[in-house]
Prior knowledge:
The structure is a homodimer.
Chain A: H1 4-18, H2 27-34, H3 38-50, E1 54-57, E2 63-66, H4 75-82, H5 110-128, H6 131-135
Antiparallel strand pairs in A: 1-2
Helix pairs in contact in A: 1-3, 2-3, 4-5
The first copy, chain A, binds a DNA duplex through helix 3.
Amino acid sequence: MLSKKTKYGLKALTYIAKSVGDVPVQISEISKSENIPQKFLESIMLTLRKSGFLGSKKGKHGGYYLIKEPSEIKMADVMRVLEGPIAMVPCVSLNFYEKCDDCPDEHECSVHKLMIQVRDNTLKVLRNNTLEDLSGS
Amino acid sequence: MLSKKTKYGLKALTYIAKSVGDVPVQISEISKSENIPQKFLESIMLTLRKSGFLGSKKGKHGGYYLIKEPSEIKMADVMRVLEGPIAMVPCVSLNFYEKCDDCPDEHECSVHKLMIQVRDNTLKVLRNNTLEDLSGS
DNA sequence: GTAATTCCTATTAAATCGATAGGATTAATA
DNA sequence: TATTAATCCTATCGATTTAATAGGAATTAC
């Protein structure tokens, strides 16, 4: 299941990408428009800023803006920051690898083989889609 | 993340599929061999039996056996029983559809579009793989 | 009739998730 | 300079889910 955090984050990024002009977009505006609890969204925006997707301006007339072009922002990267591993088991994760405690040898594990395929296909989608694709049309 | 329940369930099914002869396989044997807590595995086997993947024999020399051929058991079906929806958001789930409470119109939702692609690619893998594929070689 | 097994329900401890609270800091502007 | 409006930051809370355990009932082989 996709967490609300990730879903809200993706919606917020899309909203900013769609916004016209170069003025920063405010949390309160996104929150109202996308039905996202404002305080919750605050913490998500903070994460997105700290991980290099957004820039911010403080104080009156402040807000958030994209640092990179929408076409440069891969969904896979956003997902990793907000959701964590893309793989369904840690032992097939490229960026968050961990050994399973119940498997003496993961190459013998039937689940491992299956989950590599799932990971590869999911990754294909998430690498091919950028923020531009989400906000387009 | 794949739950332990699902992972254990898939391992247990694989173990039974690999077992030779037509005698029922016992929980205690699977539990030891696959490092799965026995009591936890008990409840998983029960679920798999009630959902039509396994048959059981009670009492001494009892145990579990496959009801269908391994090649007939699609991973997608097992996953739905043990893990629930395959889709990452309920609003793109084929078997567990639910409307999102934050989306007035899901066809306008950028996340929706992305998650349909993820679902379709995951489904492709889980439909193409059967228990035979997991237990083979 | 005894031992071995599945069957069933309930419970628990820990982790995670979604959301909120309360203020500190910064900047525009009147 | 004072006020207002925004981000920033840390902590916390309640609900849900997850992984696992407990304890015994029912069934069957021998």
